[in-house]
Automatic annotation (TrEMBL):
Chemical reaction(s) catalysed: (6R)-NADPHX = (6S)-NADPHX; (6S)-NADHX + ADP = AMP + phosphate + NADH + H(+); (6S)-NADPHX + ADP = AMP + phosphate + NADPH + H(+); (6R)-NADHX = (6S)-NADHX
Lineage: Bacteria, Pseudomonadati, Pseudomonadota, Gammaproteobacteria, Lysobacterales
Family of this protein: Belongs to the NnrD/CARKD family.
Gene expressing this chain: nnrD
Protein name from the UniProt record: Bifunctional NAD(P)H-hydrate repair enzyme
Residues annotated to bind (6S)-NADPHX: 63-67, 131-137, 160, 257, 318, 367, 434
Binding site for AMP: K404, G405, T406, G407, S408, G433
Subunit (UniProt): Homotetramer.
Amino acid sequence: MTAPRRHALYTVAQVRALDRRAIDVLGIPAGELMRRAAAAAFASLRRHWPDARRIAVYCGPGNNGGDGYLLALLAHEAGLAAEAWALSDEAVGEDAARARAACEQGGVPVLRWDGTSSLPRVDVHVDALYGTGLNRPPQPVAAALIERINVCGAPVLSLDVPSGLNADTGHCPGAAICARLTVSFIAAKRGLHTGQAAAHAGRIELATLDLPESLWQEQPDAHLLEPATLPPRPRDAHKGRNGHVLAIGGEHGTAGAIRLCGEAALRGGAGLVSVATRHEHLPALNAARPELMAHAVDGPQALEPLLARATVLAVGPGLGQGAWGHALWLTALESPLPLVLDADGLNLLATETRRFDDARQVVLTPHPGEAARLLGCSVDDVERDRFAAVRALAQRFGAVAVLKGTGSLVADPDGRLDVCPWGNPGMASGGMGDLLTGLVAALLAQGCPARDAARLGVGLHARAGDLAAREGERGMVASDLLVPLRLLLNGWEA
């Protein structure tokens, strides 16, 4: 498997087309693909659980079940105690039927799951119930089996996709397997890398089934981000070459939000960082972080001279939606400067929608709630298809859009999309978004185009969160990311 293939993400329709091409154009029989998939999954099982002596394989009626039957046969032939549990009396499709027959003829017991049976005591459960095609809740009998597997305590290996998870979107419309390991076949499915998938897929391995590179002719739908940072600075660098970020926000009582944004811009490498905020916040900002140039701004007229000196704007952290915040927001949006818009900057945009000029570098960084307000839909609608939501945001507003959350997504107005593979639950705390806003603004200030600033900023932010989480996820706060962020920006790798 080549390195680029590991980072290419495909839709279910694209994977089906690849499968069809392998059969029709390359002349590889469907049964042979099934055998390769079973062999790859069994090899992963032995690597991860070398001491396993007893396994149970739960097989649906389709080709995913066929993979499972053949894996059970391989386990039996290798000396493991293996049994297969079927959801139905017959397999659907010739290849799945042949796989089931081979399993039975090879001496593996095939038992019928009727919803009342007890789970066998095994070392590993193998999930081969549903493949990539499921986009509805599992049937009640299958759902009951899934729920029992999830609470049994033994590890689970899922074949291709954890059953119950939508492989296109990462959404679970009903019960879904919580796997310790998922072995995905032929190509990486995009839905395994965002949203609810993080709680269900476990570790993900890709088995391309020894298919030749000539199979992949169309562009993937999305890509996983790869570790990256900025190049070293030239030895004659000075602050004037690294941009001037103006962070605008901090309504009464929210000095912390704008401070985190400004400090992230400093740690992100901006040469200068100014803060436009309420007068009451100046003493605290000057005492805590004197490198921030804090200014009392009571309205647009006071903001104008700061705009004249800035090269990039970061607008929204602690801004509020009152008269003060709205006036500063309008003034910032009328400026031609590159812009990162977050928090109340996005909430105001939801009430006064506008599309940004194509020539302006703009990055929007909503969480699902803010995205729902911007799109005029519910949070559930956003989470049901995060890919569609982030693309709609980018196209509607003419900006690079970041949809935050597990498996954050970055989309261009032209539809290009990247998925962040890093981050952890410890980052689900206040202030993390303020950091990202300042970091992306700092990258824009140092010359990154909007798409690159968003991709690099999202990746660095999440990787810094993972480094900070080495001391524990629970109790981690946003400022814990600042030191790891600086290390990553300077080429330090964990």
